[in-house]
Write a structure and sequence with these properties.
It comes from Pheucticus melanocephalus. By secondary structure, the protein is an alpha/beta fold. The radius of gyration is 18 Å and the shape is globular. Helix content is about 40%, strand content about 15%.
């Protein structure tokens, strides 16, 4: 009996968007209009690259960025949930699939001492250049028409499961915990015994309920959560069984 928990990061583990939070480091805590308006749908990573150049040009250093990022609040109940998973790691494998970046996620998880809860983190690779600028790259290339061009979460999940099978690891149930439109693609991949856990009031919940209304519902079960305590209650029942 082994369970897989797949987490999104922004608005799921943390109660904010890490990419927009970094703007607090900008002069007057805002971006110039020209930069703000330069975003094109499906090209968020390129947009963030320009934001990081702007911050670097304005002398924003790594330590200031780190200090700012580690003030992001966790979602209600999430600290309890991650603590519970950490205490039961023999039952739960746990991964993050996120459109944030490696630097932000590492900073936030390490500061809260949650890095060891997660077996793997799949997100856009980021690093500081020799001149001290944060740079970010696409996670991978894919052919999915539904997803932003830098990341298809279904592809990540499928490749992870294939790799685990090669190691002889298969899961009794997969639980996918997320909030956004880009979480729908991996949720559509889940099977009847799996469970999607969309955050209440966010895009993923709305998209799943639209599918149900158009009579093409997702195959898996759905558990809507507003606090991560809801998820923890479910996991406790699962373990008791």
């Amino acid at each position: 009996m082994k369970f897989l928990l797949v987490f999104d990061f922004d608005h799921t583990i943390i109660d904010e968007n890490s990419d927009t939070w970094i703007v607090k480091c900008a002069p007057e805590r805002k971006l110039p209009n020209g930069l703000r308006n330069s975003y094109q749908p499906g090209h968020w990573t390129e947009y963030m690259g320009r934001v990081f150049v702007y911050l670097g040009d304005n002398g924003v250093k790594e330590d200031e960025m780190k200090r700012t990022m580690t003030t992001i609040p966790f979602t209600a109940g999430m600290i309890d949930l991650l603590g519970f998973i950490g205490e039961n790691k023999e039952l739960f494998d746990c991964i993050i699939v996120s459109d944030s970046n490696t630097v932000f996620i590492d900073w936030i998880l390490k500061a809260a001492d949650f890095r060891k809860v997660f077996d793997e983190v799949f997100t856009n690779p980021a690093a500081f250049s020799s001149t001290g600028y944060l740079t970010v790259q696409h996670f991978h290339a894919h052919h999915c028409a539904e997803c932003p061009k830098n990341l298809c979460k279904r592809k990540v999940l499928k490749e992870f499961l294939d790799k685990q099978l090669e190691r002889g690891v298969s899961y009794t149930q997969i639980m996918y915990i997320g909030d956004g439109g880009n979480d729908l693609c991996p949720v559509m991949f889940l099977k009847k015994n799996d469970i999607a856990m969309p955050r209440q009031g966010y895009t993923l919940e709305k998209r799943i309920s639209q599918l149900a209304q158009s009579l093409s519902p997702v195959q898996c079960s759905v558990l809507v959560w507003s606090s991560a305590i809801d998820i923890m209650s479910y996991l406790k029942l699962l373990i008791k069984e």
